[in-house]
């Protein structure tokens, strides 16, 4: 397995990536060198990344990894929704690949927060056009009951409707949203994981292996 | 009318705002002062903004504006999807208010690009819980025929289906998306405008006046 960090503006990573875009492009350095503001420096970094794709691919190939995990920039307007982002991902991702979309547990506590994250996830899926799974990250922050409730919001739109009403949200918008969540289908149900207490990681691994190999280990 | 710029990282504005958050908070200065990276500086700026809301509100009130236009940061993960963003907007927006969601014409050229923007728009609407209209910005970049086609993608899902198929996108995902676009309803149809050739501005103004006042001029 190899890990690749694609976020040129990452300040701190809780792991040491095998390959790191920051070795070639650093948003902070671009800022200093060209006297750019924070926004402009990140845009410049994203666009520069496109010119480095071949180099990065060679670095990846040198690892001959069974799996490659790509850690992409969290700012979706800058990465997922600009041409350079999908271009880079399409050049780096193998034939068998999928996207994990991370939903922060704190943002999933309320039905409206969860819904807006699910819509973002769907928008990203549309952008990258790959199999995509939602991960409910830092699930240790939530009680088991709340996790069950969150899952029920996605799997039983009736539950979601009741909870949205309780939140006092507009009825007509809620009805539309419920249709939308229904249309998203079961693959949108988030998989709760915690890197703190390791819960859910086995299940996530099983889901990914199933999705990527149809049950068999990749060669 | 008064204009308020709420983007602390804006490098250049094509207008002079009456009130400017950058007079109080500048992402660039935060970066220098606390040696923050671009990401961290923007997060810090957004959170600081919450502490300045009362001050900004007083500045706004001094103008006694008939209308207040708030220009919000474009980076939605930083603004719309964090608690501080909706907190600030809720404190500043009047009783009669609405959100204009800007879709860049270049991102609406392909059906998949348009769809992912519509999903983002819906996600934002869910976040702010206000009436929301989509604006197709910089429409001068598109031919009149293409503008008609884009409108037809939203208003006639059958058209969207054909165009998505032509783009070679996955059939099952397309079907779901079409259900979702249908569920969004007609208010999601983007209003094409161009500040370059002034087209669409009259119509936008009429739509907004209708939405805010029910036809009457506000007091």
Tell me about this structure:
2 copies of one chain form a homodimer. Chain A is mostly helical and 219 residues long. Chain A has a single domain (2-213), classed as Rossmann fold (3-Layer(aba) Sandwich), CATH 3.40.50.300. The first copy, chain A, has helices at residues 27-34, 38-51, 53-63, 83-92, 111-128, 144-155, 157-166, 171-184, 201-213; strands at 2-5, 19-20, 68-71, 98-104, 131-137, 191-192. Chain A has a 3-stranded parallel sheet with strand order 2-1-3. Chains A, B: Belongs to the GPN-loop GTPase family. Chains A, B: InterPro entries: Gpn (IPR004130), P-loop_NTPase (IPR027417). Chains A, B: One of its GO terms (molecular function) is GTPase activity.
Count of alpha/pi helices of chain A:
9
Which CATH class of chain A applies here? Alpha Beta
Helicity range of the residues of chain A? 40-55%
CATH architecture classification name of chain A: 3-Layer(aba) Sandwich
Oligomer designation: homodimer
Q: What keyword list fits this structure?
A:
homodimer, 219 residues, mainly alpha, Rossmann fold, three-stranded parallel beta sheet, 9 helices, GTP-binding (chains A, B)
Outline of the structure:
Chains A, B: GO terms for molecular function: GTP binding; GTPase activity. Two copies of one chain form a homodimer. With 219 residues, chain A is mainly α.
């Amino acid at each position: 397995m190899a890990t690749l960090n694609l976020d040129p503006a990452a300040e701190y990573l809780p792991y040491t990536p095998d390959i790191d875009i920051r070795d070639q492009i650093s948003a902070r350095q671009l800022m200093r060198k060209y006297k750019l503001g924070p926004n402009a420096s990140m845009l410049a970094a994203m666009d520069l990344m496109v010119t480095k794709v071949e180099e990065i691919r060679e670095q990846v190939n040198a690892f001959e990894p069974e799996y490659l995990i790509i850690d992409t920039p969290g700012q979706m307007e800058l990465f997922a929704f600009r041409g350079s982002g999908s271009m880079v991902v399409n050049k780096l991702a193998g034939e068998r690949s999928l996207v994990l979309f991370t939903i922060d547990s704190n943002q999933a506590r309320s039905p409206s927060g969860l819904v807006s994250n699910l819509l973002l996830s769907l928008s990203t899926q549309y952008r990258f056009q790959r199999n995509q799974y939602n991960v409910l990250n830092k699930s240790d922050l939530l009680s088991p009951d709340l996790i069950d409730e969150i899952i029920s919001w996605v799997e039983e739109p009736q539950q979601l409707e009741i909870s949205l009403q309780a939140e006092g949200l507009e009825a007509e918008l809620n009805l539309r949203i419920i249709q939308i969540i229904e249309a998203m289908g079961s693959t949108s149900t988030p998989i709760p994981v915690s890197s703190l207490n390791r819960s859910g990681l086995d299940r996530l691994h099983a889901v990914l292996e199933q999705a990527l190999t149809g049950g068999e280990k990749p060669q």
